Each structure stands twice: as C-alpha cells, then as structure tokens.
C-alpha cells in the first residue's frame, strides 16, 4: 500500500451562539422584537429594563413678551452726534515729539550683545561694570586709572600713592573709588595683597555664620601661621577647637587666590600635525595624520 501526503484547501464557517442569536434578532419586526425582549425579562430575573431619559425639562409652549418697563426705546437713539465729548486729548497722553525707535539715553547704555559676542579681557570686563556704576566724571577717570593698574591675576599692581601722584588727586579720594571697584566681579578683584583678596571674597559670604567670621580672622591676622600648617598655635591664638578650625580652613581653601584668571582665560590650542614621521629599522616612514 502506497502512502503519501495530500494537501486540500477549503472554507468553513463556524457560527457561534451569539452570532446566531444576533442574526435571528435582526430578522424580527419591531413588534416581535418587543415580545422577545419581554419574554427574556420574564424568564431571567437578573435582567432589568432601562428606559431612556433625555434629561431635558419641560419646554414652555410660548414665551411671555417683555414687560413695558423693560422695553428699550431705541427710536430715540437712532442718530449719534458728530462729535462726542472727551475728557482728554491725544497730546495729553502721548508725546508726539519722540519717536518709537528709542531715545538718546538708550543709545548711551552698554551693549550687552556686543559684550558677549567675543572673548574680552579682564580690563574690558571691569570697564563694562564701571559704565554700569554711578560715578561722577572725576570718579570715572580714577576708576579707569585703577582698572588699568590691575594685572592679569586681578591684583592692583601699583600703590595708591603712585597712582595719586600720577593723576594728581587725593589719595583718600582714590581709595574711595578703589573700594567701589573691589565690589566688582570677579570677587577679590582690585586687592592689594593676598590677605585682602581673600577677605573680599569672604565678605560676600553673607550667610556663612561663625565659620566665615573665623576664616576672616585667620586670613587677616594669621595667614602666615596657616601657611606653615601650625594648627595647634592657631587654635590657641584663636581660642577655638580643631573642628571649628577645620570648618574655617575648608572655606579658605575654596577661595580663589587669583580671581583675575577667571575672566578672559583662553583655552589651550593644541597643534595637530598633518604628517607623522617614524623610524622603521633603517628607513623613515611617513604617515598621513
């Protein structure tokens, strides 16, 4: 007997009970459908009949006309006068002599976009802040002299006595302008020594509490002992324990001794060679990079 495989294709429709019931209900008339639903409700106590409710209230057949006292007499308002009285004139509100393109005072303000469009030096940054500060003409000239005397580290490279002689001004007046320049950004700029530079930065820590006050005492009077790491003598001189000293030292170590380098610092540019030459035995090998 020879065995083999045979493949046949065919179609088969399987009708579920739900489909059969749906087809039967679709063939019923309205009266027969109502009777069918009623019989299902009587035979199955779990079924409940729902009645549709549009939720709308009764609509009155007619609308009552408005009373005579609510009617508006529009006939008397058909015409309007050619000119209406006004309380003010345009000239009282708008100054027609000025244009909307901006005033001359706006042109004198520093240009923020041009300031950030290219890298600037520390002196340019300080001059921009000086332009934003309310200086008198003489004070602005003294501020310019002080800014020119600040080196790249942010320190005042010349003494106030020399600057006062060069500008022929009082040293006290020059000191007053220097104190205002020392409030510029970056913190610590315009200092005359390291101690003053660190003090200027600590004074801006308003909410530092006791550690900031202790750090100011160390920087002002005991900076040399701190540099020698003479911690027992520092604790004895300040009357504090080692924990308080460590908290103050943490603040001091976070300060910048060269604040001027934060502005205008140029990134290092590395030279990338086009070719690389190597010795391979007794020959030179040239590779393109």
Descriptive keywords:
single chain; 289 residues; mainly alpha; 2 strands; 44% helix; 4% strand
- What average pLDDT do the residues reach? 77
- Helicity range of the residues? 40-55%
Radius of gyration: 46 Å
The first-to-last residue Cα distance is: 79 Å
Report the uncertain regions: 59-63, 96-105, 112-118
Question: Could you describe the 3D structure shown?
Answer:
By secondary structure, the protein is mainly alpha-helical. Among the domains are: 112-181, no CATH class; 194-261. Helices cover 44% and strands 4% of the residues. It has helices spanning 17-26, 30-43, 90-93, 104-108, 112-116, 122-131, 137-148, 160-167, 171-181, 194-203, 210-221, 223-227, 231-238, 242-253, and strands spanning 275-280, 283-288. A two-stranded antiparallel ribbon has the order 1-2. The longest helix is centred in the first third of the chain and has 14 residues, at 30-43. It starts with 16 loop residues before the first helix and ends with a strand. The model is unreliable at 59-63, 96-105 and 112-118 (pLDDT under 50). It comes from Acidithiobacillus ferrivorans. This is RNA polymerase factor sigma-54. Residues 81-94 have a biased composition (Acidic residues). Residues 44-68, 81-116 are annotated as: Disordered.
